[in-house]
Amino acid sequence: MRLSQFHLATVKEVPADAELTSHRLMLRAGMIRKLASGLYTWSPLGLRVLRKVENVVRDEMDRAGAMEMLMPAVQPKELWKETGRWDKFGSELLKIRDRKEQEFVFGPTHEEVITDFARNELKSYKQLPINFYQIQTKFRDEIRPRFGVMRAREFLMKDAYSFHLSPESLNETYEVMYQTYSRIFSRLGLKFRAVQADTGAIGGNASHEFQVLADSGEDAIAFSDRSDYAANIEKAEALAPAGERPAPRAELKRVDTPTQKTIADVSAFLGVSPQQCVKTLLVRGREGLVALCLRGDHEINEVKAGKLPELPDESVLAPEEEILSATGTRPGFIGPVGLPGNIPVIVDRSAAVLADFVCGGNADGTHYTGANWERDARITRVEDIRQVVEGDPSPDGHGTLQMARGIEVGHIFQLGPKYAQALGATVLDDQGKAQVMMMGCYGIGVSRIVAAAIEQSHDEAGIIWPEAMAPWRVAVCIINPKNLPEVREAAEALYRKLEGRGVETLLDDRGLRPGQMFADLELIGIPHRVVVSERGLASGTLEYRRRGEAENRAITEDELFTLLA
Amino acid sequence: MRLSQFHLATVKEVPADAELTSHRLMLRAGMIRKLASGLYTWSPLGLRVLRKVENVVRDEMDRAGAMEMLMPAVQPKELWKETGRWDKFGSELLKIRDRKEQEFVFGPTHEEVITDFARNELKSYKQLPINFYQIQTKFRDEIRPRFGVMRAREFLMKDAYSFHLSPESLNETYEVMYQTYSRIFSRLGLKFRAVQADTGAIGGNASHEFQVLADSGEDAIAFSDRSDYAANIEKAEALAPAGERPAPRAELKRVDTPTQKTIADVSAFLGVSPQQCVKTLLVRGREGLVALCLRGDHEINEVKAGKLPELPDESVLAPEEEILSATGTRPGFIGPVGLPGNIPVIVDRSAAVLADFVCGGNADGTHYTGANWERDARITRVEDIRQVVEGDPSPDGHGTLQMARGIEVGHIFQLGPKYAQALGATVLDDQGKAQVMMMGCYGIGVSRIVAAAIEQSHDEAGIIWPEAMAPWRVAVCIINPKNLPEVREAAEALYRKLEGRGVETLLDDRGLRPGQMFADLELIGIPHRVVVSERGLASGTLEYRRRGEAENRAITEDELFTLLA
């Protein structure tokens, strides 16, 4: 592409609400322009990158035997009623009324539509397993769209849905998709981890998220330093500490802690470490209050807590009055010793192995020291209810856990029979009996990947694209202040040779000053830059710089071809 | 592609409401499935064809120097307010309210969004001319969606928008787009005509429609039998008949025509030809009634009439009471002779050259014979207000007009400054002065092309794809009732050779009976079919049939390669 014939519009200033680096750089590079809150136009430059991602995704999905199709963006209410999600999905579901007052949604996902398609198209087990996918525009009416295309309302997504007769077959395709996703993100040149994830609102059994690692990521990931183990922090298991609980040695003593309500205050005041304290949270359960006990240095994991049978999916801390009326004590002084008998006491694995610990005194302004489970305090059940922390043993038994931040760009689920059951999607098995199909679903946030790649790879000057995502792999710059025809011709010739070798090349023929030219090319992240100049022609070399490196190198044309081969 | 690994689901029965051949065949072939009124899922088979069209469109747009981008489907109300189309577009505009009660539309077209983009991105005349396009899902809330994807609500469209400093530059790009569209439809293997069209609601100056010729087409086209002239019938000019109006010879006579109100009845009753009669329509003008006079055998062209200064854009016939009160006469007996002086008389060119004609008597139950313009009847103005008919002289002076039916698949417009003016989209010219940009817009109905191609090319057995649109160019069928390994291997080898030569090939390895196999392949329209069988292997030949031909031919493998080269 000759840059003089392309619409490149880099800008210096971006709106103050663009907080995230990728958002700022995409605006500065002119890849996207905001149309309205959460709605972005992809400029020719931005679309080039988006299509690179799209094409790698398509290529690998096809290679995995999935079949591309295209479902409507607008979906009828009736199907969402059938699965119950019309009411349950929440206000991210953009509802639409047509001229005849019929209701529709702008699809945020397509489980309903594909299952409806499948119940009509698939009749026999012989057609299974089958995996359909599409790459299509979706809409989620985010309450607070932000971070540019990272959390836009309208976005491009690849969604795939597989159908099976048995859980084993679902497992097999799930495994193929796991490998396919790994190939996709590897080909795109991204550092990523496949992490075990909670299945959340979509439901189902196994689930993995594919996270692009970046310090700015919204998600916390725990991974082993010695194995492949990685999990979303919501999901990562905290093992029980090794060894038995020591026998009690200290006596239970009530001590005055007049204003010490937090673990930090109490442990400092009493001169014990937080690891020797037990903190007690009183939360609203399905039937009355429930006590959750954690070691003082640990935090509750709300997703794990939400799975306790005593608690609703989203538990909340009981308000002060409720605690006061149930226990006669204010929050900050609650503990497991002497708690009313109708309150279940769920103890985290790490808290359960403590002996002679400090805990709330169940009387305002007091704590206990020398407290011990069983002897002094009831345990209803020991459970894993805490957040893992760096240094915890990896749940697979290999190494210890490290923490990282990630951006979710892919998610695979084993849905099981959930949607097929709701919509009555059955096939006849080899006995001629109708069987509800099992389903898997597999999503990739195509437009989000573009932003995630920038979060992972950029510097002060701008974006640093992985080769597979760059709008062009190499830029040929003409520095020709005397406007010598031989310089122009040499640059044109090099441009044509590169294009002839199938290397996507940008010829910067705008005639700008070198500083302006280089600033643009660095901002838009072109991986390789060569300069054709009078001086270079004289020495038979090109001035080459790899994006992200600080120094130029003089190389020959052949060396350039080798480097780009 | 091995058909055993593809989701092909042909069906025998289609719903009764599928009236149009292309709709029926697309359903029978399993290319599309209806999700809701005007909303269709494209199956893997259908999408393969849709992508072929999309890729040819993209390739030719790129070659023409247009730049692909991607705008949001959801557009904010404010922009539509700025151009006035929020109110004027009508109820085909699907309006959406988000969770914050802000209003949006699901874009049926993108003039507003691109002009907003341009007013922010384009600053200088040096950036012009420029041509942006996208291939994207659009929505029009049709009152009566029908004919499958031919008139769906959600559809895939290529829309392009060019920006210019001068009308000359707009003209140049318009001409390039005209040629590009011609190349696109030629490459797709379609019989089409570029016809002059009315600019309609989008406004602007020049406009051409690209019509795929098909008897079932909704649009009537007039074209010359001796030149390139072609026009939408709404637009085709009816020339004035050659020669002067003859001098009056007959006397004006009022005759009784007690029950004869129509031209057919009057001309039969009086024994004159309809060509010798003048029919008079009284329509509601901007200020009172207007008389439109046509030759008895001609029909009014409402688009032409709508352009008369006396008439509103959409004129309606005056109701009986209004005619009665204005003229004292009932419809059927109105004529230009003695019409009240306040009613303008607009006479069509062909009616204006008549002498001694028959017309209404302006008294119930009577007509005049021997009527003559000027002598007996006023002419306010002579205009072209009729529909052309077959045999009319071509307006370009070459040949006579023929009629055909067409399906509109493309439309190019010179919009001029309309949208740029409304949205204040200006650039600085070479004098540093702000100038409103001129615009062109260029649409192609990508999904509609698929249906139009089928309307143009099918037979009893199913679709007959042009090579460029076929899901696969050739099908290799295995007929192997004895399940001989050499037959299977020969078919596999041929399949691999064809794919190796870049010929998209479908291997029908489903093991069906030949009849079923051939019926499917004919239905889905594969252009070339070869059979590998025991008998063929023995003779060293393949049984070949071109889709649409009635006979098989025995050909060698080399002959097949030559044929597909």
Automatic annotation (TrEMBL), chains A, B:
<dbReference type="GO" id="GO:0004827">
    <property type="term" value="F:proline-tRNA ligase activity"/>
</dbReference>
<dbReference type="Pfam" id="PF04073">
    <property type="entry name" value="tRNA_edit"/>
</dbReference>
<dbReference type="InterPro" id="IPR050062">
    <property type="entry name" value="Pro-tRNA_synthetase"/>
</dbReference>
<dbReference type="InterPro" id="IPR045864">
    <property type="entry name" value="aa-tRNA-synth_II/BPL/LPL"/>
</dbReference>
<keyword id="KW-0648">Protein biosynthesis</keyword>
<dbReference type="InterPro" id="IPR002314">
    <property type="entry name" value="aa-tRNA-synt_IIb"/>
</dbReference>
<dbReference type="InterPro" id="IPR004500">
    <property type="entry name" value="Pro-tRNA-synth_IIa_bac-type"/>
</dbReference>
<dbReference type="InterPro" id="IPR044140">
    <property type="entry name" value="ProRS_anticodon_short"/>
</dbReference>
<keyword id="KW-0436">Ligase</keyword>
<dbReference type="InterPro" id="IPR036754">
    <property type="entry name" value="YbaK/aa-tRNA-synt-asso_dom_sf"/>
</dbReference>
<keyword id="KW-0030">Aminoacyl-tRNA synthetase</keyword>
<comment type="similarity">
    <text>Belongs to the class-II aminoacyl-tRNA synthetase family. ProS type 1 subfamily.</text>
</comment>
<dbReference type="InterPro" id="IPR002316">
    <property type="entry name" value="Pro-tRNA-ligase_IIa"/>
</dbReference>
<dbReference type="InterPro" id="IPR007214">
    <property type="entry name" value="YbaK/aa-tRNA-synth-assoc-dom"/>
</dbReference>
<dbReference type="GO" id="GO:0002161">
    <property type="term" value="F:aminoacyl-tRNA deacylase activity"/>
</dbReference>
<feature type="domain" description="Aminoacyl-transfer RNA synthetases class-II family profile">
    <location>
        <begin position="5"/>
        <end position="466"/>
    </location>
</feature>
<dbReference type="GO" id="GO:0005524">
    <property type="term" value="F:ATP binding"/>
</dbReference>
<dbReference type="GO" id="GO:0005829">
    <property type="term" value="C:cytosol"/>
</dbReference>
<dbReference type="InterPro" id="IPR006195">
    <property type="entry name" value="aa-tRNA-synth_II"/>
</dbReference>
<dbReference type="InterPro" id="IPR004154">
    <property type="entry name" value="Anticodon-bd"/>
</dbReference>
<comment type="function">
    <text>Catalyzes the attachment of proline to tRNA(Pro) in a two-step reaction: proline is first activated by ATP to form Pro-AMP and then transferred to the acceptor end of tRNA(Pro). As ProRS can inadvertently accommodate and process non-cognate amino acids such as alanine and cysteine, to avoid such errors it has two additional distinct editing activities against alanine. One activity is designated as 'pretransfer' editing and involves the tRNA(Pro)-independent hydrolysis of activated Ala-AMP.</text>
</comment>
<protein>
    <recommendedName>
        <fullName>Proline--tRNA ligase</fullName>
        <ecNumber>6.1.1.15</ecNumber>
    </recommendedName>
</protein>
<dbReference type="InterPro" id="IPR023717">
    <property type="entry name" value="Pro-tRNA-Synthase_IIa_type1"/>
</dbReference>
<keyword id="KW-0963">Cytoplasm</keyword>
<dbReference type="InterPro" id="IPR036621">
    <property type="entry name" value="Anticodon-bd_dom_sf"/>
</dbReference>
<comment type="subunit">
    <text>Homodimer.</text>
</comment>
<dbReference type="Pfam" id="PF00587">
    <property type="entry name" value="tRNA-synt_2b"/>
</dbReference>
<dbReference type="GO" id="GO:0006433">
    <property type="term" value="P:prolyl-tRNA aminoacylation"/>
</dbReference>
<dbReference type="Pfam" id="PF03129">
    <property type="entry name" value="HGTP_anticodon"/>
</dbReference>
<keyword id="KW-0067">ATP-binding</keyword>
<dbReference type="InterPro" id="IPR033730">
    <property type="entry name" value="ProRS_core_prok"/>
</dbReference>
<keyword id="KW-0547">Nucleotide-binding</keyword>
